[in-house]
């Protein structure tokens, strides 16, 4: 079987988690505290065997100031030993370069691929297509790249970034996000057939059955999936075991988190 990666998602708003895990009774303090300390949440997903963590900058997507979120994602990366892939919307290539230089393993580029293609090519050469990837958030197959660019089709965007040297893509449809209704497999097959880029899909996954369906597309280059809401609501069988263990170990976990937070503190980005 072709290896397939499941990546938990953390959404950040002003440096705080937008979601909180629904734990077993007795873990209320553990999980509520994590909303204020995303580093702890990243460490928890790692302890639960995450091989990568997906972080989304909700502030930037909404056009708001995201200084706190930018600082937080660097702290998170320094606190875990697996890659963090960071989806943010920045106005210039230099903002992505600073994140990479600060240690964030992977950044997902969108708008600036259109507004500064030469700068993106340079960034790819400097940091490699493994660390510089591209993000598509589509609606009815259209991608909104902001007032300076407007709408392009997802196919136009994917072919464009492939020509720049991109070799990995995160793809989601707005209607999938938080819906727990699964993903449109025909859409994924269509975008997978455009290039030979590796593809991570995101949004909509609600159950192991949804995962198995996506995994069938692995021969097309779909090698991973980002899961948010379903992971926080414990919809997968293994999670019940994790939450029961965490309920018993809550004081010990907090002690570990406090120690890790002290060791991983950093200066401003």
Automatic annotation (TrEMBL):
Name of the protein in question: 1-(5-phosphoribosyl)-5-((5-phosphoribosylamino)methylideneamino)imidazole-4-carboxamide isomerase
Pathway linked to the protein: Amino-acid biosynthesis
Organism: Candidatus Kapaibacterium thiocyanatum
Single GO term (MF): 1-(5-phosphoribosyl)-5-[(5-phosphoribosylamino)methylideneamino]imidazole-4-carboxamide isomerase activity
InterPro entries xrefs: Aldolase_TIM, His_biosynth, Isoase_HisA-like, RibuloseP-bd_barrel
GO cellular component, one term: cytoplasm
UniProt keyword Amino-acid biosynthesis present: yes
Family the UniProt entry places it in: Belongs to the HisA/HisF family.
Biological process according to GO: L-histidine biosynthetic process; L-tryptophan biosynthetic process
Keywords noted in UniProt: Amino-acid biosynthesis, Histidine biosynthesis
